[in-house]
């Protein structure tokens, strides 16, 4: 049967039969994702209260081609506390790319219910199955604090202390890593039975030791930069990954970035530590 509204043309040059669609119906994808428990990813852009199963629930919302994907607080993997605190916790998810599984669909209301918790549990099973000591795995920073970084390894979260970020002194991890940063880490300890794991960034970086010790000698003086200030002393960076420790100066307070001439008084090669004395601030 002919259709007067459809004109017949020869196929354009390069035509493969695959056409770009400018309007996408998400429902087929959502039903398939729910049936197969497919792990999807999206970015929450809203915080809303919704009534689900006759209960008013705080949710974050991911938009998918006009459909609201609701992530209830109970499915976020966040610790449940007071309502106002929960809202603050949800704000940390806004703008971040998160994994989720579709667990419910309400097409009449143009809504779907999703679970980050279910996605992370599924990802964690795969991770523990494949994880091995000394294996290099991808990580994404979830939280960055002064002394440590919380990373996600694929459903498994682990804290990396500042000492495992660099061979040199790390004064503030927030100056090196930002939330959402992706990088490789090395598994340095694993106990699958207890689901306990430790990872390191430092182990993947070339160590300046012991080669750097050829460049420094006890009794000689060297110019360095203040890289950290602690109760027990001052860290002086001599080169990338190499910091000497000196006592606090008695007559002057120093700040990060100050240049100080120091005299090396001891080198402990086995401990990868250099001890010195401050001569003067340059």
TrEMBL record:
Transmembrane segments: none annotated. Gene3D superfamilies: Nucleic acid-binding proteins (2.40.50.140). Residues 134-202, 219-279 form the S1 motif domain. Keywords: Ribonucleoprotein, Ribosomal protein. This is S1 RNA-binding domain-containing protein. PANTHER family: 30S RIBOSOMAL PROTEIN S1, SMALL RIBOSOMAL SUBUNIT PROTEIN BS1C. The keyword Phosphoprotein does not apply. InterPro entries: NA-bd_OB-fold, Ribos_protein_bS1-like, S1_domain. Belongs to the bacterial ribosomal protein bS1 family. The keyword Ribonucleoprotein applies.
């Amino acid at each position: 049967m002919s259709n007067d509204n459809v004109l017949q043309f020869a196929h354009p040059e390069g035509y493969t039969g695959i056409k770009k669609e400018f309007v996408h119906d998400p429902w087929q994808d959502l039903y398939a994702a729910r049936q197969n428990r497919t792990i999807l990813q999206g970015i929450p852009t809203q915080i809303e209260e919704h009534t689900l199963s006759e209960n008013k629930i705080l949710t974050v919302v991911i938009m998918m081609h006009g459909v609201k994907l609701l992530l209830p607080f109970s499915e976020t993997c966040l610790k449940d506390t007071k309502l106002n605190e929960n809202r603050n916790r949800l704000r940390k998810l806004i703008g971040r790319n998160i994994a989720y599984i579709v667990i419910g669909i309400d097409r009449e209301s143009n809504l779907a219910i999703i679970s980050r918790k279910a996605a992370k549990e599924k990802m964690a099973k795969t991770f523990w199955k494949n994880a091995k000591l000394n294996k290099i795995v991808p990580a994404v920073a979830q939280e960055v604090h002064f002394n440590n970084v919380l990373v996600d390894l694929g459903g498994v979260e682990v804290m990396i202390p500042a000492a495992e970020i660099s061979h040199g002194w790390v004064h503030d991890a927030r100056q090196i890593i930002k939330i959402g940063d992706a990088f490789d880490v090395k598994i340095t300890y694993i106990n699958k039975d207890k689901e306990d794991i430790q990872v390191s960034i430092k182990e993947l970086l070339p160590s300046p030791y012991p080669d750097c010790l050829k460049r420094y000698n006890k009794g000689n003086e060297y110019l360095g930069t203040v890289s950290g200030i602690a109760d027990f002393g001052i860290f002086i960076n001599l080169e990338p990954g190499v910091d000497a420790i000196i006592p606090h100066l008695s007559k002057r307070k120093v700040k990060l970035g100050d240049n100080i001439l120091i005299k090396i008084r001891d080198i402990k090669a086995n401990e990868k530590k250099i001890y010195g004395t401050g001569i003067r601030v340059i």
